[in-house]
Amino acid sequence: MGLLLRLAGPLQSWGEHSVFGHRDTLRFPTRSGLIGMFAAAEGRPRGAPLHDYDPLRLTVRIDRPGVVMRDYHTIGGGYPRELTVPTAEGKRRQPGSETILTNRYYRSDAVFVVAVEGPEERTGAVAQALESPYWPVYLGRRSCPPDQPILLRAEVDDPVEHLLDRVPVASRPPRPDAPHELDFVTEGTRDDAESVAQLTDVPQTFSRLDRRFRTRTVSVAPRPVPTELWAKSTNAYYDALIDYIQEAR
C-alpha cells in the first residue's frame, strides 16, 4: 500500500553534501528532503523521533531533471566590523574577511513523481497530512514552494506499477527512433542500474543543534514508459493528470 506524489515548482533543491558556503543539489529528491516534507505536513517539531518513517520505501521517476541554476550570495559586506557575521567562536572577523561568499544551487523547471510504499497506517497518515499540512511544505528548501497538485493518489495497492504504466509524464515524447524511457531512482542495488551511489540522506534527527544522518544505497536505471503517457503539449499533460486524479474518486 502506498501513495503517489508529484513534485514540481519553479525551483527545487535537494542537497546531500551542503556545507557552509556550498549548497548543492542532486538531480532527484533526497530521502531527507522527502521525510522533512512529511514531518512538516504532520506538524512534527524539530528533534522529534523519526524512526516511524524508516519503513517507508521511496521510488522516484524523473520526468524532467530541470536545469541547474547557481545563486551567488554575499553576506556581511559593507557593514561595520561589530555588525558583521560572527565566527563559530562568537568573535568578529578580521578586516578584509568580513564578507562571506556562498553558492546555492537549484533545479529549475524540474518534475518528479514519487511512489511512497509502507505500512498502511503510516502512508495513510502522510497522505492525510499532505492534503491539509500543519506547516507549509517545500521542495528541499523554504525558498522552493511546490506547485499543485502534490498528492496524486492515496491508498494505491502498487504505486510503483502506477509510475511504470499509469501516471502521465510531464515531458514531450522523444523522437520516434529513441527509446521511451525515464530514469527511476530506487533504494538498494539493482542489476540493471546505470549508476549506484551511497548517499548520506537518511535523517535520524532534524534538531537544529544535532542533525544526524545514516547512509543508504540508491540505484538509477532507465525503464520503459508507455508512449501514450507522454505529454504532447502542456495542456494535454494537465488534462491527463486531472483525469488520472479523478479516476480514484
Detailed description of the structure:
This protein is of the alpha+beta class and 249 residues long. The protein has a single domain (2-70, 105-247), classed as 2-Layer Sandwich (Alpha-Beta Plaits), CATH 3.30.70. The chain has helices spanning 31-41, 120-131, 159-165, 234-247; strands at 2-8, 11-12, 22-23, 57-64, 67-75, 100-108, 111-117, 151-156, 181-187, 195-207, 210-224. The strands form 2 sheets. The protein has a 7-stranded antiparallel sheet, sandwiched between helices. Strands 2, 3, 5 and 6 form a 4-stranded mixed sheet that branches. Strand 10 and strand 11 (210-224) form a beta hairpin. The longest helix has 14 residues, at 234-247. The protein is globular.
| CATH T-level topology | Alpha-Beta Plaits
CATH architecture: 2-Layer Sandwich
Q: What is the 3D shape? A: globular
Question: Counting H and I runs of at least 4 residues, what is the number of helices?
Answer: 4
**How many structural domains can be distinguished in the coordinates?**
1
CATH C-level class: Alpha Beta
Q: Provide the structure class.
A: alpha+beta
What is the CA–CA distance across the termini?
A: 17 Å
Radius of gyration: 20 Å
Mean of pLDDT: 90
Order of helices and strands: EEEHEEEEHEHEEEH
Could you list the spans in which at least 5 consecutive residues all have pLDDT below 50?
A: none
Keywords: Antiviral defense
Pfam families: Cas_Cas5d
InterPro entries: CRISPR-assoc_prot_Cas5, CRISPR-assoc_prot_Cas5_N, CRISPR-assoc_prot_CasD
Protein name: Type I-E CRISPR-associated protein Cas5/CasD
